[in-house]
Amino acid sequence: MGWLAALLTQILHLALVLAAAPLVVGGIRWLKARMMGRQGPHPLQPLRDLAKLLRKRPVLAETASWVSRAAPYLGAAAALAALALVPSFARGMAFAPLGDLVVIAGLLALGRVAMALAGLDAGTAFGGLGAAREMSFAAIAEPAFLLAVLSFAILAGTTGLEPIGALFQEGSLGLRVSLGLALVALLAVAVAENARIPVDNPATHLELTMVHEAMLLEASGRHLALWEAASALRLTLWLALLSAIFFPFGTAPAGFAPLGWLLGIGAWVGKMALLCLALAAFENAIAKMRVFRVPEFLGTALLLGLLGALLLFLSTRLA
Amino acid sequence: MVEPLLPGGEPAILLARVPPRIPAVLTALLLTLGALGLLALAAVPLARFAWGAAVVHGGVLAAALALAGLGLAGLLAGAMPPAALPLSVPTQVAVDALSAWFLLVVGLAATCSALFALAHGARLAPRLLAAYPLFLAGMALALVAADGFTLLLGFEAMSLASWVLVAADHAQAENRRAARLYLAIAVFGGICLVPAFGLLAGVAGDISFAAIRAAPPAGWTAAAVLALVVAGGGAKAGLVPLHGWLPLAHPAAPSHVSALMSGGMTKVSVYVLARVLLDLCGPAQPLWWGVPLLVLGAGSAVLGALRANLETDGKTLLACSTIENIGLICMGLGLAAAFRAADLGVLAALAAGAALLHALHHALFKSLLFLGMGEVLHAAASRHLDRLGGLIHAMPWTAGAVLVGVGAAASLPPLSGFASEWLLLQALLAAWRVQDLAFQVLGVAAVAAAALAAALAAAAMVRLFGLAFLGRPRTPRAAGAQDGPWLARAALLLPAGLTVILGLLPGPMLDLAQGAVQVLVPLGMAERGGMLAVRVGDGGARYLPLAIAALLAAMAALAWWVAKRRAPASVRGPAWDCGFMPPPPHLPFGDPATQPSAAGFGQPLRRMLGGTLLAAREAVAMPPPGDPSPARLTASFADPADGWLLAPLARARDALAARAERLRGLSLGAWLMLPFATLVALLALAAWVGG
């Protein structure tokens, strides 16, 4: 029966995150607008946009190859696969043995490369510009992410997401400065990976500052819908990852436990809503930075990750 | 000369009459080596015939297949006792699991290379035809050697034969320069390795591996051996700071040779490093034994990957990526040595397994990429990224195969590059278990370096594929390119298929490499492979590539089902390009200059990291106001190793040569004094050492 419960958890998890993804994007937009004193679009607007785009006829550039047609599916699949591995409301999902932080980094890289290749496919100036910037920023974001992973690996002895979450939920670690540093590093990486302010502005279409949008300029119809869905899934993934590692409170244990699951779903929705609120407040509070200041921003994250790991060595040595 | 092995004279004499039994695998290997030698001899007369090249390349193909098969057989059969070669000088050969693993690696790389040569190498010069089998024979001999002399014989044969191949197109000055530097580095490698084996042999002078293993070096001898082997083997492998020859020499050779040099030859150097430093020097070395390899490997990984983002020549870019991957492999070897010294046997086996697996994976995907670039060079007459573009339309087979290689080199799951890098990262993430604060700090830096190198490599690979194969053609030649003949396509599809399969099955390959890992790390084995997964060890992390691939496929199918259900078919139109005007009729593919250029794509990384690490410079020459001429941006970079190491060395060589030139003016008496003084000095040395 154990595997049945695991499968059920996994299916519920997938349904939950698929429902949450458009709401996360729409919710953040709505919250931002409200904080600025605007009415703002309905939180379900991204879902309506997706439905509209799916019905539209895609126009492909004459110079585009099959890469433009295949890459959206790969990008969406990579984001969805990574999201399927990050626990949301309960442990013991069927795919939990696959849930390794290095593998998740690899899946994110797969989606990133698919998007960069799609940006280069039509041979336009902006697509190449966005691809170059995206790959370059990732070159600093990825080491920062892995240094944060190093801190978890030292504490939990593994890079598996399930054991790390279980250890942090247990609460025996207490508050640690190094974990705080890892959290800040991860937040900075999450902001960069999701092309949010201050690294990139998801609402702009000003060519000179675009990173993410520049690669999607030639996409239309269902291809654009898939890219938008992938980016919503990625944002959900990062928020879910943060809550799974740093705020695992209320997560239901493995096994069949409907009541625990209900509580877990409630706790997860609450955590995600808080994270969305925090992200909206953060984005409203600061301005977008110049493109060539981004390496400094990510370099700081890298140094914080480094510092976190070093502090961990010193503290375990002293203890 | 057989000494009595048993008490009493009679049985010993009996033993002497019966020749030692040579295992079948070893016999077949020696026969293959002999056949390669004969092929090299026959190549020059054969080159006169139109079908001569096909015979030579076909023979090399058969030999390469035999080497790979024998490597596999050796891995399955287990270790074999060393056997003496039937030569006048004392030489010994043996095949243990480590040799067999690298034979498999080199054999597979050579198979792809020979297939490509069979398709495209019909009009090569006789000296190139002769050097090619010799090159493979040298590599194989170095791998099966069981004493220092045979190892160096094979190593130097490999270096010299490949020098002939690097100098193939010697009409161009840059290729002559590359060949000269290549020869100098090869000689330097020999200069370092010969005294290293001298030190290992000790006073007894026995350079067979068995004797060296019995008396491993210690103290300052060990330190000297470490320095000499890292310098000599590292120079041939392309470790910093002696990597400067690699981006020059690998592109200069014909493409099938570039593939074999990058895929095979660098692995032979890695084999020498692993064999001497981890196997021959014994497990009783201190913790710092692995540190040089770890530090130099990390430096090579970052520098090579960054440089790959700045180079504008496709093959040079790939050569820089080779520096990166060799760096990663050496990091694995260095970590294995450190873990072994810290009595962390399971982790040492993990690191060594990661290094061996990455050697195999890199050999295949780098052969594939070099051969793909060779196909591009053949079809579009250029390997400069600014003269290619849009080849995916003209060369769909090549583009598809190269895309697989690009994905593996960018370490994307579920391809092969990710599997070995996952293992390496897991080993690095466990470096803190060594109870030494300095090493722990080094381990953190190494994690950052490995992750940085992997992400930089992904950027470089996107740049390579995006500029050469995607977009619009930048020259008419690129627009008119075509896929190669079926044989050449097979040479690309074979490594591409293997890259996919090995990416899905790292567990069985790791099990296959178990014997080789055991040679490097004798104690502390844990069941790590298995059909479906690779594991870190007791309760640690897991990577299940088949499941990840199935999950990706299922999710892609889900996305396809959702998106395609009621979607209308797509139509074609001119690229929107933010509303820019369509190109004028005389530019059917639009203005090529409105696409990203090779220098432009590298600009963010050049500004972010290039300035500090590679002394990258940008200068904009603006015309004065009112002048309609265009502004010019010039970007350049200089490898620090060239300026700080190679240039002073070249100056020192010139100064020494000028000084030696003065010897010409000496008198006859002084001339006679020189050899006499040398003789006296040598005799004194001999008396001092022997006395």
UniProtKB/TrEMBL annotation, chain A:
InterPro entries: ComplexI_Subunit1, NADH_UbQ_OxRdtase_su1/FPO
Topology relative to the membrane: Multi-pass membrane protein
Primary location recorded for the protein, binned into one broad class: membrane
Locations listed in the record: Membrane
Transmembrane segments: 70-89, 140-161, 173-192, 224-247, 259-282, 294-314
Keywords: Membrane, Transmembrane, Transmembrane helix
Keyword Lipid metabolism: no
This protein's record includes keyword Nucleotidyltransferase: no
Annotated Pfam families: NADHdh (PF00146)
Full protein name: Formate hydrogenlyase
Organism: Falsiroseomonas selenitidurans
From TrEMBL, chain B:
Keywords: Cell membrane, Membrane, Oxidoreductase, Transmembrane, Transmembrane helix
InterPro entries linked: ComplexI-like_HydComp, ND/Mrp_TM
Cell location: Cell membrane; Membrane
Pfam families per record: Proton_antipo_M
Transmembrane segments: 24-47, 59-80, 100-119, 128-145, 151-169, 181-203, 223-245, 257-274, 286-306, 318-339, 345-373, 394-417, 437-465, 486-505, 543-563, 668-689
Domain (NADH:quinone oxidoreductase/Mrp antiporter transmembrane) ranges: 147-435
Main localization of the protein described in the UniProt heading: membrane
Membrane topology designation: Multi-pass membrane protein
Name recorded for this polypeptide: Hydrogenase 4 subunit B
Organism: Falsiroseomonas selenitidurans
